Amino acid sequence: MAQKKGLGRGLNDLLGTSEASKPSRSRNNQQNSSENTSKEVKTVTKEVVKEVVKEVEQKIKINLIEPNKSQPRKQFDEEALQELSDSIKKYGVLEPLIVTKKGDYYEIIAGERRWRAARMAGIKEVPVVIRDYTDKEIMEISLIENIQREDLNPIEEAEAYEALISEYNLKQEEVAERVSKSRSTITNSLRLLKLCEDVRQMVMYNMISTGHARALIPIEDPKLQYETAAIVYDQKLSVRETEAYVKAILEKKPEKEEKQKPQKDLSVFYSDIENKLKSILGAKIAIKASNNDKGKIEINYYSQDELDRITEMLYSINKEMM
């Protein structure tokens, strides 16, 4: 009985109940207390088991594991991978990959970088923890993991947000809640997708910052946007200088283009006139046409005598017309 009382008081103290401080009044009370204690023991045991039991880690052949096609991260630093590979050769893969079963293979949820480095190191088996997630959950987890580790470049992060919104009909507020970011952060990230592909590449390779990139967004012409980004990179402009430069480009008034009439192919017509004038004047004639039906007629001469002859002929033509 002493043991039961002791055990009962210990659990009651653990659970914060007041019955442990009261003396036992009868055998029935003791039995009731014992039964209650037994129930409490089972309850506490279940809770302790939940805390103590960890996910089962196991080893799987590396050739049975494939990367997640929806993995937000597309670029991996080869030098950093080689360093991790060298470490794995010495110490093995210390942190297990998180995978999910997909038919006859396992898809990576988290740990693709370790998987790549392990393959480079020639490792045949890697430690994994198998979990069952939906495609949406897998994408969210992959995105969150990469964001927490700052593994994604700004364009990859923006593309991942866009995928969550378009593929799973999430709102920006919902995406922000899932990745523990503010809505404005998500909005500013998504704006980077308005950049042309060439400028996106410059952001991905850290040639220009996200601040520079956002300043370039108002330039809608892809060619001009890229040319401006190249100037920003070459001249090492600050973000404020870039904003001012872009503003100047957008405020520049386009030159008034003259309305041009559709050009007709008049080369044959002009050639016929040139030949007729040549036969009259006995000199080489060239008609230079320009826009709006304007142009000029050139009379070529090769000596002073030929100039005098042409001049006298024109005078005589003028007299006849008068």
What strand order characterises the main sheet?
A: 1-5-3-4-2
- Average pLDDT rating: 76
Radius of gyration: 41 Å
Order of helices and strands: HHEEHEEHEHHHHHHHHHEEH
Q: Number of helix segments? A: 14
- Main sheet characteristics: 5 strands, mixed
Helix content: 55-70%
- The count of β-strands is 7
Distance between the termini: 148 Å
* Helix/sheet category: alpha/beta
* Parts with pLDDT < 50 across at least 5 consecutive residues: 1-24, 44-53, 257-263
Q: What shape does the CA trace take?
A: elongated
- Beta-strand proportion: 5-15%
Family: Belongs to the ParB family.
Region (Disordered): 1-43
InterPro entries: Chromosome_partition/occlusion, HTH_ParB/Spo0J, ParB/RepB/Spo0J, ParB/Sulfiredoxin_sf, ParB_dimer_C, ParB_N
Organism: Coprococcus eutactus
Can you describe this structure?
The chain is α/β, with parallel strands linked by helices and 322 residues long. Helices cover 57% and strands 11% of the residues. It has helices spanning 2-15, 27-52, 78-91, 112-120, 135-148, 154-168, 172-178, 183-191, 197-204, 210-216, 222-235, 239-251, 267-281, 304-321; strands at 58-61, 65-66, 97-102, 105-110, 125-130, 284-289, 295-300. The strands form two sheets. The protein has a five-stranded mixed sheet with strand order 1-5-3-4-2. It has a two-stranded antiparallel sheet with strand order 6-7. The model is unreliable at 1-24, 44-53 and 257-263 (pLDDT under 50). Residues 58-147 form the ParB-like N-terminal domain. Residues 1-43 are annotated as: Disordered. It is found in: Cytoplasm, Nucleoid. Belongs to the ParB family.
